[in-house]
Write a structure and sequence with these properties.
The chain has about 180 residues and is mainly alpha-helical. The protein has six helices and no strands.
């Protein structure tokens, strides 16, 4: 197993650790959760860079990397939903897009094709991670009123949802031939 794939698996392992810390109602735990999420997010950029620059791109990496990203961002969105920081609609839209794209990828894989992440798909992931990190940071700053922090977090997440929708529409449009009703 190469280094980029190990970094991807590390991101998967960090997901439940992130959730465990972020669910503890203590500032130190929120800070630990923020750091874990940030480190996990950085592994996403790092594994992709290493894989491309050192010609270590694998089919496993093309499959596992987006899965790890989705696990990480979904975990954070679940926490934000549970804590009533964001609307359940956010989570539904994000998951709906993810299921649609996963379905398209499965249909492509059945034909022996692998659909790599597009620019908009990568941008969606980055925008979600930035919004989540900002939201987690706001959770750690006790001088900001909770309602203000939650409103800012919700707005940032909704902005990332716009990119989520754009990337979802792009995947469906580019791969519409796979979805023919013949």
């Amino acid at each position: 197993m190469n280094l980029p794939n190990k970094l991807t698996l590390l991101r998967v392992v960090l997901v439940p650790i992130f959730m465990a810390f972020i669910m503890i109602d203590a500032t130190w735990a929120k800070i630990a959760g923020l750091v874990i999420f940030a480190v996990a997010s950085l592994t996403d950029a790092l594994d992709g860079h290493i894989a491309r620059s050192q010609n270590l791109v694998t089919t496993f990496g093309k499959f596992a990397d987006p899965l790890a990203d989705k696990m990480l961002t979904t975990a954070a969105l679940l926490v934000f939903t549970y804590q009533q920081i964001i609307s359940p609609w956010v989570l539904m839209i994000v998951l709906g897009r993810e299921f649609a794209v996963a379905g398209i990828r499965l249909v492509a894989a059945a034909d022996g094709n692998v659909i790599a992440a597009s620019f908009w798909g990568k941008f969606k992931t980055v925008s979600q991670m930035i919004a989540i990190i900002a939201g987690l940071l706001l959770m750690c700053i006790s001088i900001i009123p909770v309602n203000v922090a939650n409103t800012i977090t919700s707005m940032l997440i909704w902005i990332s949802v716009i990119f989520t929708l754009i990337s979802g529409v792009e995947y469906i449009w580019k791969n519409r031939k796979l979805l023919s009703f013949k």
